[in-house]
């Protein structure tokens, strides 16, 4: 597909716009970081995104007209965002889900996405939409590691049982594509693989540019971004899970007086955040080396049969139907099903 021509000087048409529906653990942070460093794109203000989400969560469940008045004094983009030649990018994980690991009833989800689409079709009626997916087994494990990093205490097997509905909803990319495609046109919704960005980031941006014309970052910037916010190792995740569990037990222990529990409740998040930061950002630190040497690796084991069936019978065929070979990586997804 030939990239669209840039707007000419004096052209009052809508600036070219990309809405990135950042599914969890698909390099959303890295993509945002890359775009924020580029001179020829402008990324929506995080403050504007948070205010927008406040409006959506506060009004979507009411039978009232959409009111964007609370946003009128909040600039969407930096001052350069009104340049008609510059690509505008809206990117957030909140655009793809209602709440983290909390799948709402179908009617609630529909109202939320309808309101969200009402906003975006008003702000940018001719936008393109990007969805990034990844190999489902690795994707689910990465989501579990994120759950542990944010204080989770469940084992992997228990996590799969408790959050099976949420994980299948995450993998239902065809539904997400249909929701946005119904408003913007299916030809404007693009699915790309996480693995292409991870292994060959320059090719990922080349592909996005060739499809819709989004500017490409310098190769060095793309390579650096591909290594941001990497997942914990299995042993590091297990260490944090056990630490989370121990902290939770102490904070609810009746053997401690209330003053001690209050102190622990304040200190625990700080200690856990420091441990997470050192494990993720200092892979050769004493803590990281000790954890990876001494902590037993968790037994992940296979996914439950119903989830395996969903991946084989629904997820993989959907990607084949919607993307062909998914930039050459779909065979590697299919082979994991054997």
Number of domains: 2
| CATH homologous superfamily identity of the largest domain | P-loop containing nucleotide triphosphate hydrolases
The H/E string reads EHEHEHEHHHHEHHHHHHHH
Strand order of the largest sheet: 2-3-1-4-5
> In which range does the helix fraction lie?
40-55%
Number of E strands: 5
Low-confidence stretches: 1-12
Main β-sheet description: 5 strands, parallel
Shape: globular
Strand content: 5-15%
What is the CATH first-level class name of the largest domain? Answer: Alpha Beta
Rounded mean pLDDT is 83
Word description of this protein:
The protein has 338 residues and is an alpha/beta fold. The protein folds into two domains: 17-148 and 166-225, 3-Layer(aba) Sandwich (Rossmann fold), CATH 3.40.50; 234-294. Helix content is 54%, strand content 7%. It is built from 15 helices and five strands. It has helices at residues 28-36, 46-59, 106-123, 136-149, 156-162, 164-171, 173-184, 194-199, 201-212, 219-225, 234-252, 258-281, 286-294, 305-323, 330-335, and strands spanning 17-21, 41-43, 87-92, 128-133, 189-193. A five-stranded parallel β-sheet has the order 2-3-1-4-5, sandwiched between helices. Strand 2 (41-43), helix 2 (46-59) and strand 3 (87-92) form a beta-alpha-beta unit. Helix 11 (234-252) runs antiparallel to helix 12.
